Amino acid sequence: MIEVFKRGLECPVDEVMLCPNEPMSRHTSFRIGGPADLLVSPKSERALCSAVKAARAAGLPLTVLGNGSNVLVHDEGIRGVVLCIGSDYAALQVEGTRITAQTGVLLSVLSNEAQRAGLSGLEFAGGIPGSLGGALFMNAGAYDGQTADVVVSSRYYDAQTGKIGTLIGTDHAFGYRASTYKSHPDWIALSAEMQLVEGDTAAIRAKMDDFAARRRDKQPLNYPSAGSTFKRPEGYFAGKLIQDAGLMGYTVGGAQVSEKHAGFVINRGGATCADVLALMEHVQDEVLRQFGVQLEPEVRVL
């Protein structure tokens, strides 16, 4: 398969990293997941677009992955090509009060760069373990901010047409854990431009440090997880419902509802995808039975 894929590339091979039979547990924050047939990491926009074309030309299924912080990969792995848009595709540039960045850049890196430049607006992103691409896909947010607050435009590659397009402002259709990218899975985000405001570097850092301390205090950061497991139901908090259902500490295999924050399912060691899915199903059933509320997963299952 790898040779067929390589023959379809329209860029130098050294612009992509190719890893056959790559365990996805190495590329997800849950540390769970069987092997991908072929994991591809592009190092340029040309390589990213070329990899998509090559996969389609070869008739191979294509899965796009960012930093793997909001996904759960099946124990059997992922068939076809996994396009991993990560640290090899993470250039950024600060111009005045705007930052333009490729979508593989980590949100923590973006936040720190903004702080050093004396720009406010990305403080919320400092502790989110995802990439800019993932943030665009799901309108990532925390505390008093969200991706929608700062993104003014983005560029994407349409895998269906092979053309590059641009979204501006409301074109992104950002909502709660939603965006145009989520409703158009064939559109692969390439870069984004963010509008920030001038601020005091010390005050920005203090705000980021406060958010980080609150995360350490409330979240089980010492265990692998995918962050909040379920979306916030309207009028409720998922973690509170799960706690009130008496499910804190509930365990299936190596997976557990965190005893520190019931909104997190953690990998205590050796958890499988099957463990996590069984645990999630039980939590959903109990919360529905006890409170009549249907919890919707926030974690994407691949």
Overview of the molecule:
Helix content is 28%, strand content 28%. It contains eight helices and 19 strands. The protein has helices at residues 2-8, 45-57, 107-116, 132-138, 180-183, 201-218, 238-244, 273-291; strands spanning 16-23, 35-42, 62-65, 71-72, 78-84, 92-95, 98-102, 119-120, 141-142, 145-146, 151-158, 163-168, 187-195, 197-198, 225-228, 251-252, 255-257, 264-267, 300-301. The protein is globular. The two termini are 21 Å apart.
* β-strand number: 19
Shape: globular
Helix content: 25-40%
Could you give the order of the helices and strands?
Answer: HEEHEEEEEHEHEEEEHEEHEHEEEHE
Pathway: Cell wall biogenesis; peptidoglycan biosynthesis
Function: Cell wall formation.
EC number: 1.3.1.98
Subcellular location: Cytoplasm
Task: Supply database-style keywords.
302 residues; Uridine Diphospho-n-acetylenolpyruvylglucosamine Reductase, domain 2; Uridine Diphospho-n-acetylenolpyruvylglucosamine Reductase, domain 3; Uridine Diphospho-n-acetylenolpyruvylglucosamine Reductase, domain 1; five-stranded antiparallel beta sheet; four-stranded mixed beta sheet; 28% helix
What is the topological layout?
Elements: H1 2-8, E1 16-23, E2 35-42, H2 45-57, E3 62-65, E4 71-72, E5 78-84, E6 92-95, E7 98-102, H3 107-116, E8 119-120, H4 132-138, E9 141-142, E10 145-146, E11 151-158, E12 163-168, H5 180-183, E13 187-195, E14 197-198, H6 201-218, E15 225-228, H7 238-244, E16 251-252, E17 255-257, E18 264-267, H8 273-291, E19 300-301
Parallel strand pairs: 2-5, 3-5, 4-19
Antiparallel strand pairs: 1-2, 6-7, 7-13, 8-14, 9-10, 11-12, 11-13, 15-18, 16-17, 17-18
